[in-house]
Amino acid sequence: MAVGEYPLPEMRKRVWQPRTLAEAWQLKRTLGEQTVIVSGGTLLRTQWEAGTAIMPGHLISLESVPEVQVCEAGGAAIRIGAGVTLAACQRWGDAPSLLKEACRRIAAPSIRRLGTIGGNVMSASGDSLPALAVTDAELVWYDGSGSVAEPVGAWLEQRRAVGGSAKETRLLKEVRWSRKADDQEACGYYEKVGRREGFCPSVVTVAGQFRLDAAGRLRGVRLAAGSAAAVACRLAEAEALLEGSVWSADLRRSVHQAVMEGFDGGADAFATAAYRKRAAAHLLTAFLEERAGCRGD
């Protein structure tokens, strides 16, 4: 369906199925604020049913856009389209291992078969985001004129700065990594804590990655945390403390405090921000204690 064939915004509600990102972009501009971009729609459906979001006048489905369905690991980059399902990310052999573990822990199998990596990212609190952040993933956006890449961590910082409330005007095309994203020499960690074993919102989700050099010093440290009630984030202060250091009891206490201060936590009816902060700090320092090869008293 060509863009020129679209009726005016005031015409009846419907689901639109553009064939390209350029077409979806133009359609979004034509229909304006009464439109929501959707692919799997699993989170949006939950929000509509709960009354926490208003059902829009128009849905623009990206399910028929080939540009967001790619899974490629050629050359120097690994690429996963925004429309690829969580189940497909979990199964794909070239996906970074931390992302595969994150996808395995999201919702139930039936949801993972519909929900997409793009939808999980765009929520700004999705369980995949800590894994994406610590593997230095980039988000590739379509802005109407071409593609623009942005580190996940930088985008999350911008989301935090506006309280997660401002709408993203660009269209997410894909998630991209360098071929070094899945460092076989690195110690990686991903953990999600929920109110029950599965299919529940995250109380806290954390991820970490580092290497040890020949002198036992931590290198390439990446830490991130998120929850269902807060925008996920990289923990830059804790990373700076760890980089080039040897694990010790004093360092553990400093890192624990830095995680508490760097993570917003977020509060809802099920957990306070203080509880989430402590949980994230406990999980990450326990990971470092176990994997860094030196336990301090």
Structure commentary:
The chain is an alpha+beta fold. The chain has two domains: 182 residues, Uridine Diphospho-n-acetylenolpyruvylglucosamine Reductase, domain 3, CATH 3.30.465.10; 105 residues, CO dehydrogenase flavoprotein, C-terminal domain (Enolase-like, domain 1), CATH 3.30.390. The protein contains eleven helices and twelve strands. Strands 4-5-8-6-7 form a five-stranded antiparallel beta sheet. A hairpin with a 7-residue loop joins β9 and β10. The longest helix is centred in the C-terminal third of the chain and has 19 residues. The N terminus is likely disordered.
CATH topology of the largest domain: Uridine Diphospho-n-acetylenolpyruvylglucosamine Reductase, domain 3
Shape: globular
Question: What's the β-strand tally?
Answer: 12
**Series of H and E elements:** EHEHEEEHHHHHEEHEEEEEHHH
Strands of the largest sheet, in order across it? 4-5-8-6-7
Largest sheet data: 5 strands, antiparallel
The structural class is alpha+beta
Bin the strand percentage. Answer: 15-25%
End-to-end distance: 67 Å
